Amino acid sequence: MENYDAIVVGAGTAGCLAAKTIAEKGLKVTLIEKSPQEAIGEKICGDAIGEHHLTFLGLEKPTGGEIDANIDGIKIFSPDENTVFTIADKDFVGFILNRHLFGQWLLKKALDKGAMLQDNTNFRSPIIEKGAVTGVVAKNTKTGQVTELRSKVVVDASGYFAMVRKQLPAEFGIERNIDNQDVEACYREIRQLKQETQNTRFCEIYLNQKSSPGGYVWIFPKGGARVNVGIGTCMRKTGYPNPKEQLYKTTFTKPMFNNSTVLTGGAWFDPVRRPIDNMVGNGVVLVGDAASLVNPIHGGGIGPSMLSGYFAGQQIVEAIEKDQPTKEGLWNYNKKYMDTYGKKQGTLDIFKMFLLSCNDEDLNYGMNEKLMTEDDVLKAGMGDDFHLNITETAKRVFRGIRRVGFLNKLRLTVTMMRGLGAHYNTYPATPQGFEAWQAQTIKLIEEGRQKLIS
After folding, report:
1. CA distances from 435 to 287, 344, 395, 429, 432 (A)
2. How far apart are CA 194 and CA 177, in angstroms?
3. CA angle 264-267-271, nearest 5°?
4. Can you give the pLDDT at residue 265?
5. H or E element: which one contains 116?
6. What is the mean pLDDT of the segment spanning 142-163?
7. Which of 134-148, 184-198, 276-290 shows the lowest per-residue confidence on average (mean pLDDT)?
8. At 68, phi and psi to the nearest 5?
9. CB within 8 Å of 189: residues ≥ 6 apart
10. Which end of the chain is less packed: N or C, by CB atoms within 10 Å?
11. pLDDT for the residue numbered 389
12. Do 445 and 417 touch, CB atoms closer than 8 A?
């Protein structure tokens, strides 16, 4: 039986940051990863990350092939493609990654700080004793050996399928299952085009409820006439369209894809909602996709996953040093994440509902007539208030008299985003008061669903 201060289940972006942060403080930590070491980092993904995430985390810009393209912002196309919003803000400047090399880069940083890696190893179950997670049962897929690994804290960094979280008892007070209405089914291909597109510095997002209901199509440049092109569709309705079929029926009919070559392709799922309300329990912490830490609007999860790994690692170190790897000792990770990125995710969950409620005609009219402006979209994307004043609102009502319902829905959305943001500002500093806070959160989210998309 092996003993550690911390065991991290999953060597993705969140897991590697957690392991690095714990190891650099001199604690004994191991990563449990089902893939072989050389395959770590390979993932079906949009591959985009904002530069501000690396800056916040104190990470230098990688220079060994981990970056495929530099990005200056995002272009958002209306369903009829007659209107394009260009969002060029410092928080939308970033990179398109070589996902595999970037994953290897993060792994090396963790190992260089002293973290250990057990690759080709499947997590099987958490070990739970006296109301606390005290380790894991894992199986080496090469030797078939099943081992018990003991630790003071287990980190669930196992992604969307949340292998640890789903096996926790209800008394841990951690949400175990995510509703399909909060999940997007995604399909993506890397394609080699016949020639490089004119747009090589902006990510393109296409809104269209017919081709991508509840989601969007993206085309991201990867350099060298290569593009990352994909689609996300909301799973909230039974019989949601197959994303691969939708991509082929719509996007790949564009002239730019004539005679293009598929380099790689694949599908995955994104939990697009607010964060899990409580991400800690006695001896356990959730990070990354396992905690639903994905932007509800654009589906970006690399940045917030790294942020969560960093915050979780810091709190785990503090809790272990105080000999308090308990729910109470780990709680400040919840507070820190909610105060920085969780509030933004929560308010964007409401904005996602607004988008789900809109048909293509609404979106075309709203964008073409500037009922929504580029500044509005930027502020929404940042989880900020739309600072509408009475004069400007009156102008928009006059322009949008044929679609007053759309404007009223937008105004309601702004009000509800503001209210939920204020609620997140009251996230409790300790587990005391959490149940009341969570009950109010659920109430506000349900009100959003009923008023916007029911």
Report:
1. 21, 21, 43, 13, 8
2. 44
3. 135
4. 96
5. strand 116-118
6. 97
7. 184-198
8. -90, -35
9. 228, 229, 230, 247, 262, 263, 264, 265
10. N
11. 46
12. no
Report in angstroms the alpha-carbon separations of 68 from 101, 154, 168, 221, 288. 10, 34, 39, 8, 23
What token pair was written down for 109? 């940083």
User: Helix or strand or coil: residue 223?
Assistant: strand
pLDDT digits over 8-47, tens only?
999 999 999 999 999 999 999 999 999 999 999 999 988 9
Spatial contact of 41 and 103, defined as CB atoms under 8 Å apart? yes
Which residues lie closer than 8 Å to 319 by C-beta, 6 or more apart? Answer: 153, 325, 326, 329, 330
Sign of the dihedral through C-alpha 167, 173, 175, 177: positive
Give the tokens for residue 299: 């589906």
Q: What is the DSSP letter of 342?
A: I
The pair of three-digit structure tokens given for residue 436, joined into one six-digit string:
């009341």
Contact 338, 422 (CB under 8 A): no
The per-residue pLDDT for range 232-257, each reduced to its tens digit, is: 999 877 778 899 999 999 999 999 99
Residue 381 has pLDDT above 90, yes or no: no
- What is the DSSP-derived secondary structure letter of residue 165? G
Average pLDDT value for residue range 125-146: 97
Whole-angstrom distance, CA of residue 424 vs CA of residue 348: 12
